Amino acid sequence: MSETVKRFTGGCLCGALRYEAEGEPLYTGYCYCADCRKASGSGCIPFMGFSSRAVRFTGEPRQFWSKNYKGKDAVRNFCPTCGSLVFGGEVGQDDSHTLYAGTLDSPALFQPTMAIFLRDRAPWAPLPPGLEHCDTMPE
């Protein structure tokens, strides 16, 4: 009997930047930090974390670098054609990547478990019930 490996596929609005991830995500949730709000133009970013070994990318992203809450470099990757924000992390350098769940081909695959950076949540941003809550990044 063969075991079916879960696959997550997605990409940008125009299709020029794509990904495929295999297996279960390492973590999933909503990030309410100020950077995610501003990068997305929304109240939060729904995210899924995968080992870099589990994700393959096609297309050439454009990158935006900023400092994270600990002062370290963070990189966001977006499509240079349509501008869609697709994933976080530096390909070939980081051990894991954050895929933005809004880019999934099958959005029903996203199963959030946590809400992070609640200290920065805008009062109008909805907070789904039943999630683990963290004021910043969980340990």
What string, H for helix and E for strand, traces the elements in order?
EEEHEEEEEEEE
CATH class: Mainly Beta
Strands in their spatial order, largest beta sheet: 6-7-8-9-4-3-10-11
Strand residues, percent: 35-45%
Number of domains: 1
Alpha-carbon Rg, integer: 15 Å
Layout of strands and helices, then pairs:
Elements: E1 7-11, E2 18-22, E3 27-31, H1 34-40, E4 45-51, E5 55-58, E6 62-67, E7 73-78, E8 85-88, E9 96-100, E10 114-116, E11 132-133
Parallel strand pairs: 3-10, 10-11
Antiparallel strand pairs: 1-2, 2-5, 3-4, 4-9, 6-7, 7-8, 8-9
Features of the shown structure:
139 residues; mainly beta; Metal Binding Protein, Guanine Nucleotide Exchange Factor, Chain A; 8-stranded mixed beta sheet; 3-stranded antiparallel beta sheet; globular
Describe this structure in words.
The chain has 139 residues and is mainly beta. It has one domain: Metal Binding Protein, Guanine Nucleotide Exchange Factor, Chain A, CATH 2.170.150.70. The protein contains one helix and eleven strands. It has one helix at residues 34-40; strands spanning 7-11, 18-22, 27-31, 45-51, 55-58, 62-67, 73-78, 85-88, 96-100, 114-116, 132-133. The strands form two sheets. It has an eight-stranded mixed β-sheet with strand order 6-7-8-9-4-3-10-11. A hairpin with a 6-residue loop joins strand 7 and strand 8. It is globular, with a radius of gyration of 15 Å. The termini are far apart. The model has no long low-confidence stretch (mean pLDDT 94).
